[in-house]
């Protein structure tokens, strides 16, 4: 869904996407300091691998994006992570394209980053189940945001490419559910074993 | 305190490694629309498929000629296949649009349609069901009357039969090639992960240099 190939989008959409992606990359890289590099690289590698695995669903096939998780853990640093993952997928496997890389980065990374930045302060105010709910909600909404961005990019390029709503709905609902489940569990796990990754305070000595 | 944090960090690292390995186990599959198209008995047929499984069913396919003009538009059937019989040999492109932003274009060159199209024209009298069946005996009416031997007619019959048989035999190979071409290979996945590790290393080196220069 999210890997738009070369030769499909119109020039203004491609340029707009590239400008937004470069701006996002600049912000993400400026925020990156030494301590952030390993976790950014790990999540970039997880994104790179996870979004290669596709599962056939109905008339289409879906794959994980994990943009909600990246947005929660990395904030704006998710943009360089997604950029590297997509660049490698385009070069090694021909998924997506090089000219559409900017648009694809915006489609996948931006919804997760925005939702992650909005939701992160709330993580420290809720209990275990609340964290699962926040993680799941951010992931599902990030998938919805990606679907909306892809549809907008296609519709702005040509009315012929307007994705069929029926197929988007069939593929988007299971993907949102899968992402919500995975992200919910990962967020609650990280909150217990490595809370500083989510911007939470370390538990005091002796706490479980 | 420090020990417990170190142990926790190790736990996270093991979990991440497990996640990565789990990812690789399924990484033989991937997400991209590909197409298999062939010509059998003058008919363009084939299907689009997602690498990793699944064919877009009940979605639009469009046939365009060399000039880019649309000559036919149809829907793929419940097995995801499309078929269309051209009236004359020409370069055609087939586009399958899965309807969710995935589509794929394939081309059929005129010379793959050449001989069979002449056959199709000579068999207008024959029933179409006989003409579409590749295994049917040559439905060309001239084959039944051997008396006036017309070399051109015989050549046309032979060419059409050979084309049909070669197309039938080659079909599994073309199909297997199209399937294999898009497969994600573990080597490439590992190469990509290695690239990310290398980038992280380069980033760490650059930031540590910057900090040391700032201190010095």
Structure overview:
The complex is a heterodimer of chains A (208) and B (216). Chain A has seven helices and two strands; from the N terminus they run H-H-E-E-H-H-H-H-H. With 208 residues, chain A is mainly alpha-helical. Chain A has a two-stranded antiparallel sheet. In chain A, a hairpin with a 2-residue loop joins strand 1 (54-57) and strand 2. Chain A is globular, with a radius of gyration of 17 Å. The mean pLDDT of chain A is 85. In chain B, 27% of the residues are buried. In chain B, the strands form two sheets. Chain B has a four-stranded antiparallel sheet. Chain B has a three-stranded antiparallel sheet with strand order 1-2-5. Chain B is of the alpha+beta class and 216 residues long. In chain B, helix 2 crosses helix 4. Helices cover 48% and strands 20% of the residues of chain B. The chains are: A mainly alpha (208), B alpha+beta (216). Chains A and B meet through helix 2, strand 1, strand 2, helix 4 and helix 6 of A and helix 1 and helix 5 of B.
């Amino acid at each position: 869904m999210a890997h738009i190939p070369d030769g499909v989008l119109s020039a203004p959409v491609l340029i707009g996407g590239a400008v937004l992606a470069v701006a996002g990359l600049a912000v993400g890289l400026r925020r990156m300091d030494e301590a952030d590099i390993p976790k950014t690289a790990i999540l970039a590698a997880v994104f790179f691998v996870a979004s290669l695995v596709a599962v056939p669903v109905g008339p289409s096939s879906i794959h994980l994006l994990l943009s909600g998780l990246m947005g929660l853990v990395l904030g704006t640093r998710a943009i360089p992570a997604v950029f590297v993952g997509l660049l490698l997928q385009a070069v090694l496997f021909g998924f997506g394209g090089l000219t559409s890389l900017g648009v694809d980065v915006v489609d996948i990374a931006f919804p997760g980053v925005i939702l992650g930045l909005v939701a992160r302060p709330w993580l420290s105010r809720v209990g275990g189940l609340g964290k699962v709910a926040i993680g799941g909600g951010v992931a599902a909404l990030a998938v919805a945001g990606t679907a909306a961005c892809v549809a907008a990019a296609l519709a702005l390029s040509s009315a012929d490419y307007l994705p069929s709503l029926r197929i988007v709905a069939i593929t988007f609902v299971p993907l949102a559910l899968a992402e919500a489940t995975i992200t919910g569990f990962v967020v609650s796990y990280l909150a217990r074993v490595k809370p500083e990754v989510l911007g939470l305070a370390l538990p005091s000595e002796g706490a479980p | 305190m420090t020990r417990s944090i170190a142990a926790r960090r190790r736990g996270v690292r093991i979990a991440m490694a497990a996640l990565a390995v789990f990812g690789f186990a399924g990484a033989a599959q991937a997400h991209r629309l590909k197409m298999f198209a062939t010509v059998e008995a003058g008919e363009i047929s084939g299907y689009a498929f997602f690498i990793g499984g699944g064919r877009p069913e009940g979605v639009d396919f469009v046939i365009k000629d060399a000039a880019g003009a649309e000559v036919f538009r149809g829907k793929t059937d419940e097995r995801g296949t499309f078929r269309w019989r051209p009236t004359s040999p020409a370069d055609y492109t087939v586009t399958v649009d899965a309807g969710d932003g995935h589509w794929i274009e394939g081309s059929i060159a005129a010379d793959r349609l050449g001989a069979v199209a002449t056959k199709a024209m000579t068999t207008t009298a024959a029933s179409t069901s006989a003409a579409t069946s590749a295994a049917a005996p040559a439905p060309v009416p001239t084959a039944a009357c051997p008396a006036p031997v017309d070399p051109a007619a015989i050549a046309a019959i032979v060419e059409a039969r050979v084309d049909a048989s070669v197309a039938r035999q080659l079909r599994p190979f073309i199909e297997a090639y199209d399937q294999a071409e898009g497969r994600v290979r573990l080597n490439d996945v590992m190469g990509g992960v290695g690239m990310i590790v290398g980038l992280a290393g380069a980033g760490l080196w650059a930031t540590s240099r910057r900090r040391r220069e700032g201190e010095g």
